[in-house]
Amino acid sequence: MYQYWLRFFGLLRKHLFGGFVLLIMLIIGNLGALASPYFLKVIIDKVFGEGDFQLLIQIVFSLLGLYVLRVGANFYADYLYTKISNKITQELTEKLFSHMLKLPMFYFKVNSVGSLVYKINNEVSQVRRAFTGSIISMINSIITIVGLTVLMVLLNLELFIIICLLYPLLILITKYFTPSIKTIIENTRKEESDFLAFLTERFSNVKFIKLFYSHEYEGFLMKNRINRIIDLNLKSTILTSGSNNLSVLLLAFIPLVVLVYGGKQVLESIITVGTLIAFLQYANKLHEPFRNIVSLYVDLVKTSVSIKRIYDVLDEPIDLESASDELIEMGEICEIKFEDVSFAFNDKQVLNKINVIFEAGKKYALVGKSGSGKSTLIDLLCKLIKEDSGSILVNNIRLNEIKTKHWIEKLAVCSQDYFILNGTLYDNLHYGNSSVNKSEIDAILDQMGLSSDDSDTFSSKTLGETGSTISGGQRQKIAIARALLRNPEILIIDEATSELDSLSEQKVFEYINNQPTIRLVIIISHRLSSIQFADEIILLDEGKASEVNSIKEHISMKGGFYKLFKNQLVNSEVARDM
């Protein structure tokens, strides 16, 4: 766990000067607080003992100056600490978010959205709370303890040694409870993360829940999850409260020991009354910072768990282009080859030594049963995943040797999982297309048949989360328009017209055909109306390209393609034209 803290404090390097100034302010503030008991000793032993009123006035003005200095130092320390801690947590959040976006797609397949949101929100929030509260209190307490220790040693070394004999017991109590507290905290964090994932999943599929009328069942699941979290919180409270209260009880003995042993020394004239009162006040002050440290230690254990969970994500390997300076760019795309490409997921062979050629100037359709590898092939082409074996060649250059940024700029994907921002229409069309102007947007809207829709809805109102305020067809038109605004060389349409009527779909493909920048179109669809525009149709079966023909050749062969689309071909104009 300590290695995570060392890595975390690496973020402090650029704030060393501010941290040094902060430390000075904290020391000044604490010294001001520690001066009072010593001055009280002088007043009792010197001023009252010798009747020196002039010395009393000097002490009062000295204390007044110290109090003003202390207030100023504490104010600036609070401001400086808040500024530094928020800057560090901002850097941590940005670093975590940026790293997550670079993680391979496999990571997002095996980790729920809720757990990822929990880590970037709740875990970082715990670190922020620790930095803006716990750690500053811990530093203050440590400075206070050091100052108190020095002053008590100077006042009476013998008394100090006696009270020090009680502190090993305090360490033993903390050490005994810590492992159990840490385990409970880790289990609680996991349950809370799973709970957030549960909520995310349910609210994303509320329509499904309503259609199955599963309200009571979902309530039952919710109750069980909350009960598990409550049980863990109760166990955590028992352990932390037990640790804290045993420590407080032990700390409460210290002033009593000082009073008994120190009182005996006063009666024997070994020390003065002023010394005993000053020492007793310092011993009482020692109680508070030690109690804070014991209490804050539990909070720092929670923060340790959060830091570990954050760095577990940051240690996940990203989609590296470690030799980015050696990666190449390329000119216009002429040909893309899949040569003996294989890919497996969860021990299932999705693609098995597939061989496919895509030539510029043509439109291709990928068809096949669900799970035949169509979307996987596209993910490989988009460099979202990496092939297990074989080669993907672009103009006889390995795809892995081409810079990802350069390659992504050449293609656009209209997916069945279209991404609609919770913003206006223009916000959505500008995403990834920051250089396009309003006239270009208006032109594409007209071509997509969106300009005739309610202009107020698109110009000023937000489209809702995932486009909840508009129809499925409108969402697909927006996704296609956004892709076309990129002026790509390769356009991939993955079930992206499934919610369009046949006339709208035809207009979309006619517009695509007239785009000079698009050199290659790849369509994935289970609808015959979508793939009829393709020059070649590739049938995937058991991870291989089993049939590659034009639609007419497929129908005349009556092979796997014909069997797959037989029901649609019965009433199809395409079949009647054969």
Automatic annotation (TrEMBL):
<dbReference type="Pfam" id="PF00664">
    <property type="entry name" value="ABC_membrane"/>
</dbReference>
<feature type="transmembrane region" description="Helical">
    <location>
        <begin position="130"/>
        <end position="153"/>
    </location>
</feature>
<dbReference type="GO" id="GO:0015421">
    <property type="term" value="F:ABC-type oligopeptide transporter activity"/>
</dbReference>
<dbReference type="InterPro" id="IPR027417">
    <property type="entry name" value="P-loop_NTPase"/>
</dbReference>
<dbReference type="GO" id="GO:0016887">
    <property type="term" value="F:ATP hydrolysis activity"/>
</dbReference>
<keyword id="KW-1133">Transmembrane helix</keyword>
<dbReference type="InterPro" id="IPR011527">
    <property type="entry name" value="ABC1_TM_dom"/>
</dbReference>
<dbReference type="InterPro" id="IPR039421">
    <property type="entry name" value="Type_1_exporter"/>
</dbReference>
<feature type="transmembrane region" description="Helical">
    <location>
        <begin position="55"/>
        <end position="76"/>
    </location>
</feature>
<dbReference type="InterPro" id="IPR003593">
    <property type="entry name" value="AAA+_ATPase"/>
</dbReference>
<dbReference type="InterPro" id="IPR017871">
    <property type="entry name" value="ABC_transporter-like_CS"/>
</dbReference>
<keyword id="KW-0067">ATP-binding</keyword>
<dbReference type="InterPro" id="IPR003439">
    <property type="entry name" value="ABC_transporter-like_ATP-bd"/>
</dbReference>
<dbReference type="Pfam" id="PF00005">
    <property type="entry name" value="ABC_tran"/>
</dbReference>
<keyword id="KW-0547">Nucleotide-binding</keyword>
<feature type="domain" description="ABC transporter">
    <location>
        <begin position="336"/>
        <end position="567"/>
    </location>
</feature>
<protein>
    <submittedName>
        <fullName>ABC transporter ATP-binding protein</fullName>
    </submittedName>
</protein>
<feature type="transmembrane region" description="Helical">
    <location>
        <begin position="20"/>
        <end position="43"/>
    </location>
</feature>
<feature type="transmembrane region" description="Helical">
    <location>
        <begin position="159"/>
        <end position="177"/>
    </location>
</feature>
<keyword id="KW-0812">Transmembrane</keyword>
<feature type="transmembrane region" description="Helical">
    <location>
        <begin position="238"/>
        <end position="260"/>
    </location>
</feature>
<dbReference type="GO" id="GO:0005886">
    <property type="term" value="C:plasma membrane"/>
</dbReference>
<keyword id="KW-0472">Membrane</keyword>
<dbReference type="GO" id="GO:0005524">
    <property type="term" value="F:ATP binding"/>
</dbReference>
<dbReference type="InterPro" id="IPR036640">
    <property type="entry name" value="ABC1_TM_sf"/>
</dbReference>
<feature type="domain" description="ABC transmembrane type-1">
    <location>
        <begin position="20"/>
        <end position="302"/>
    </location>
</feature>
